[in-house]
Design goal:
This protein is an alpha/beta fold. It folds into 2 domains: 130 residues, 3-Layer(aba) Sandwich (Rossmann fold); 77 residues, no CATH class. It contains 8 helices and 7 strands. The strands form 2 sheets. A 5-stranded parallel β-sheet has the order 2-1-3-4-7, with helices on both faces. It has a two-stranded antiparallel sheet with strand order 5-6. 39% of the residues are buried.
């Protein structure tokens, strides 16, 4: 049976992105299962992505590919189409999509921090850890905030810092997808459209890559720099 494959950057994102994508994918009502995300060495470089993609392509059950990484200092509006072009030139034979979290994965937590505030964070072993301080809120242009991980650390009790390998998955589980959508976090909207593109491509038997090249078709108004 065919399944979807996901490439991510960090160790914490392996489980966190798996949770996020699985929850969003259910809303497409498509039955394709997703394999556990895999880390891509040198995901910021063409040769790194191509090497990881070729390893996945060698498998007999690939139905779709999703590449997810932080934008960091790159402009998603420019970089995502560039990476998509790299994939397009490989002639994959299955649909693929590229999404950059801008500026980093944790931006999707920001609209939900008020709901998370004062709650314990339970890790994968079931052990509770201190969470965000009661009364924590975040306002403003979500993607304009730099250093989201550092900002989160400042919202924890004294002596407690945000650790992606321990906190990304439990905090992702605490994210209310409807709240993030209503907040208009641009890269979250892009991720939803990318998954919709993959679902439609699988149904239609096409092998395109999302997003389209710059200047080719309508621009994505959400994946911005």
């Amino acid at each position: 049976m065919a399944k979807g494959y996901i490439l991510v950057e960090g160790q914490g994102e392996v489980e966190a992105v798996g949770n996020l994508v699985t929850r969003l994918w259910r809303r497409t009502e498509h039955g394709l299962p997703w394999d556990r995300p895999r880390r891509c060495v040198n995901i910021h470089m063409r040769h790194g992505i191509e090497r990881s993609v070729e390893r996945i392509r060698a498998r007999p059950d690939v139905g779709a590919l999703l590449v997810l990484r932080d934008s960091d200092d790159d402009c998603p509006r420019e970089k995502a189409p560039e990476i998509a072009t790299w994939l397009r030139e490989l002639g994959l034979g299955f649909p693929a999509a590229v999404v950059l979290f801008h500026p980093e994965y944790e931006v999707i937590f920001l609209p939900c921090v008020a709901r998370m505030a004062g709650q314990r964070i339970v890790d994968g072993s079931g052990k509770p850890r201190l969470g965000l301080l009661p009364g924590t809120v975040c306002h403003g242009d979500w993607e304009a905030r730099r250093g989201v991980k550092e900002w989160l650390s400042h919202q924890f009790p004294r002596g407690r810092t945000y650790k992606p390998t321990q906190d990304q998955l439990p905090m992702t589980r605490m994210v209310d997808l409807d709240v993030v959508r209503a907040a208009g976090v641009p890269c979250f909207g892009t991720l939803e459209r990318a998954l919709g593109f993959l679902a439609d491509s699988i149904e239609g038997g096409t092998c395109g890559v999302y997003p389209a090249p710059v200047g080719d078709g309508p621009a994505d108004p959400v994946q911005r720099g």
